[in-house]
Amino acid sequence: MQAELAAYLEHLRSERQMSAHTLDGYRRDLDKVRDFCEGEQLSSWSALDVRSLRRLIAKLHQQGQASRSLARLLSAVRGLYKYLNREGLCSHDPASGLSPPKGERRLPRTLDVDRASQLLDGAVEDDFIARRDQALLELLYSSGLRLTELTSLNIEQLDLAAGLVEVRGKGNKVRVLPVGSKALDALQTWLPLRALSNPLDGAVFVSQKGRRLGPRAVQLRVRQAGVRELGQHLHPHMLRHSFASHMLESSQDLRAVQELLGHADIATTQIYTHLDFQHLSKVYDSAHPRAKRRSEPE
Predict the structure, then answer these.
(1) Cβ distance 237 to 147 under 8 Å?
(2) How far apart are CA 206 and CA 212, in angstroms?
(3) pLDDT for the residue numbered 220
(4) Range of the domain at 33
């Protein structure tokens, strides 16, 4: 089973060009399935059936695994069996027709516009790290980049004159995004400082030794900025969520926000309509006379 699993993961890496982060997720999920099979004395992938896989899902759910995580595991299993069937190693898919237990849908956490401004509009020290961090924070919020899109970004993908950035998202899909004026100013201030570090490659965001910043380094810098400027936990994806929510509040154009975020399915983008509705509800509750009267003590 391990050899076939390793072959599938190599297929995802080399032929599907799956990102290292996504590949690690698939590996962890499929390792759980393989370990379960070994515990059940199922010696091959062809021996895993729907009933056994359903038991595994129920077991993981009882252990507190989130519905979203279980959905990802089932997706990984479907992908594996599609590969095994194509290679003639199997003739069924135990995940066919299975769905994870429904869980509470959590809305993404965002900053409101005032808090985003508070984060970005403070005084910035004129040094290498401060200017770099300001540029990456501005770009994350300005263009709604994923963390991996930011860390893989190279100089040639920036067109500062046109105010555009080209990124490679999930599935190696390319999209061209606008860059706001504040982010452009921050990048133009940062790039001359970047050159002083003698960068080892074309990375836009580098350490003082010229090495490309990795995801963990960016997460740390964003978290520290959140504590320093806002007194709260902050992560890169919260800036992406904030970008999407603020764009939708202002434009009401769901399709445009879908394109900007690089979502393959508009259903993924629709979660931001719930956030927008919450915003409208708060405005209503604070502004409508009858809503105000309802909240007054008797």
Answers:
(1) yes
(2) 4
(3) 96
(4) 2-86
Parts of the chain with a pLDDT under 50? 293-298
One domain for residues 198 and 148: yes
Q: What is the DSSP letter of 51?
A: H
Q: Pick the catalytic residue: 34, 132, 146, 212?
A: 146
Counting Cα atoms < 13 Å in the Cβ hemisphere of 43 gives 0
**263 tagged catalytic:** yes
11 is catalytic: no
The position carrying tokens 């806002």 is: 230
The string of pLDDT tens digits covering residues 98-148 is 887 776 566 678 888 899 999 999 889 999 999 999 999 999 999 999 999
Same domain, 262 and 162: yes
Q: Does the annotation mark 92 as catalytic?
A: no
Q: Is 232 inside a domain boundary?
A: yes
Say whether both 72 and 123 belong to one domain.
no
What distance in Å separates the CA atoms of residue 88 and residue 260, rounded to the nearest whole number?
Answer: 40
Confidence (pLDDT) at 171: 77
Both 209 and 262 in one domain: the answer is yes
Whether 237 is catalytic is yes
CA 134 from centre of chain? 20
Determine whether 16 is an active site residue: no
- CATH number of the domain enclosing 33: 1.10.150.130
Using a 10 angstrom Cβ sphere, with 0-12 exposed, 13-18 middle and 19 or more buried, the burial of residue 180 is: middle
